[in-house]
Amino acid sequence: MAGQGKANPLGALWSAAMMLDHLGHPEASEELLAAAFGALADGVSTADLGGTADTAGYTRAVLDRVGGHGRG
Asked: What is the DSSP string of 39-66?
């Protein structure tokens, strides 16, 4: 799967959110998870979840929602 854009980054994002919480940044953790699940709620997902986004597309959809700069 490496280099094919097929990997689902949700696990890595969730791990990053857990790390942020552990390091004392619960607000950032919540924001990251809200962005990740917000993208899914808006129908952006990778093929393993029935969507059509590639790894970069899903990641962009999440990043668009972080920091109050997103659409969702």
From this structure: HHHTT--BGGGT--B-HHHHHHHHHTTG
